[in-house]
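Tip: read the tokens left to right.
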């Protein structure tokens, strides 16, 4: 039987859409978004729902010590490495219904479709809902994927989230086990390949009118904490020329961050996403401000150049405003390339479905870029309407969602017929 005969028709479109709608209802916000922060009660409920779907798809379900929810099915060849499909189901605050959730639910639908057609793969199959991709409550982000790749920083279990809860306790809430984290790691030879289906979260595919994206590379990111220390004082009595206002200086830092990408072009993207002001009262001149900054680029050198430029700007602002500005780089992901053979595999799967594809880089981060440390990775994108993501307006047309899942199904079968050798 040819690959094409094995996969027509594709996945069950109605069932996939039903599952996407049901998961989106867990943590739904009044303005149409979803808040399902990692480790929250909503995340726990969402994971239980996804675990049930995995079991219904005939997968053996477990949670690894790093909190990853994993459904597996052995292949015909007991010695064969596993083909891993996955993404995440946690969201940002008031995010969308598709970021991550789509990739997990489509992968489960692919596994279920194969089981229903009686297709047994030669290789083992695993579907993974990675734990805490988004960095819920100020955690490092892609926590589960780091555990999966054996790349968690030492002492991570004792690191506190922004509420003061240790990561070890967070993991326990979702069935993980900080004492056994090394057991979550897969060895390089264990994984034949990793494929992740995701909404694009940008507008390239929509503008080109192309339904399938073949991801070439994934941008890296560096998070930076910037602390500005001035002098708190009375807002009514302190004259305007005797102030060391930490928030005014922080505002200059925010503009400098923007300029590093927008005007100076040192790096592709630069964002200040958080700001906490102390003591935080109307009638007190701010004495201390903490900013959360991140830079993104497909080049690690440009990330370093942005850090150096920010340090320079911080020095200039400190001198001009009479404050101290401390710049501390934090979590970092390196830019990675998708495996060229898996890119070809995805393009071939799209062709087989009669769908055009376009090759593009990913500006967003993905679990795939961490899994890349232990496996060849490939990613499939589908269009995001208006390029909107990490916001309630995130939307992808149902036919695009279904086509993406069909391409994933074809890619799995093509892979099984001609595995991409690691090397
Ligand atoms: C992941 O969601 C990212 O922020 O890129
Ligand atoms: Mn996201
Ligand atoms: Mn995502």
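Filled-in amino acids:
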């Amino acid at each position: 039987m040819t690959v094409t005969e094995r996969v027509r028709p594709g996945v069950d479109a109605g069932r996939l859409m039903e599952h996407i709608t049901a998961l989106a209802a867990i943590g739904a916000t009044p303005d149409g978004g979803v808040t399902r922060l990692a480790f929250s009660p909503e995340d726990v409920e969402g994971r239980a729902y996804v675990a049930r779907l995995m079991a219904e798809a005939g997968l053996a379900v477990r949670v690894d010590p790093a909190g990853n929810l994993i459904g597996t099915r052995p292949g015909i060849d007991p010695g064969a490495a596993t083909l891993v499909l996955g993404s995440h189901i946690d969201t940002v605050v008031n995010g969308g219904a598709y970021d991550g959730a789509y990739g997990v639910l489509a992968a489960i639908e692919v596994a279920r479709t194969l089981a229903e057609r009686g297709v047994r793969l030669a290789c083992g199959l695993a579907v993974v809902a990675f734990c805490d991709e988004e960095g819920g409550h100020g955690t490092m982000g892609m926590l589960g994927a780091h555990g999966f790749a054996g790349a968690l920083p030492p002492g991570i279990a004792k690191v506190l989230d922004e509420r003061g809860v240790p990561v070890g306790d967070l993991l326990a809430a979702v069935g993980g086990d900080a004492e056994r984290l090394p057991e979550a790691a897969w060895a390089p030879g264990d994984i034949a390949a990793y494929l992740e289906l995701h909404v694009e979260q940008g507008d390239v595919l929509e503008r080109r009118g192309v339904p399938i994206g073949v991801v070439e590379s994934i941008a890296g990111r560096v998070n930076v904490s910037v602390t500005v220390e001035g002098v708190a004082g009375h807002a009514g009595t302190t004259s305007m020329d005797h102030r060391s206002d930490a928030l005014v200086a922080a505002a200059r830092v925010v503009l400098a961050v923007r300029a590093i990408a927008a005007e100076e072009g040192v790096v592709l993207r630069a964002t200040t996403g958080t700001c906490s002001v102390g003591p935080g009262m109307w009638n007190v001149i701010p004495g201390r401000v903490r900013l959360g900054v991140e830079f993104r680029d497909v080049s690690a050198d440009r990330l370093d150049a942005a850090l150096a430029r920010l340090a320079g700007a911080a020095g200039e602002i400190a001198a001009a405003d009479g404050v101290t500005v401390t710049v501390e780089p934090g979590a970092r992901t390196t830019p990675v390339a998708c495996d060229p053979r898996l890119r070809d595999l995805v393009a071939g799967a799209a062709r087989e479905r009669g769908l055009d594809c376009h090759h593009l880089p990913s500006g967003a981060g993905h679990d795939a870029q961490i899994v890349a440390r232990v496996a060849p990775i490939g990613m499939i994108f589908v269009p995001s309407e208006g390029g909107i993501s990490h916001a309630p307006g995130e939307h992808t047309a149902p036919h695009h969602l279904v086509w993406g899942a069909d391409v994933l199904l074809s890619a799995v079968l093509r892979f099984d017929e001609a595995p991409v050798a690691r090397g």
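Residues 3-219+335-417 form a domain with the Aminopeptidase fold (CATH 3.40.630.10). The pocket of manganese (II) ion (ligand 3) is lined by residues 88, 99-100, 133, 198, 366 (CB under 6 Å).
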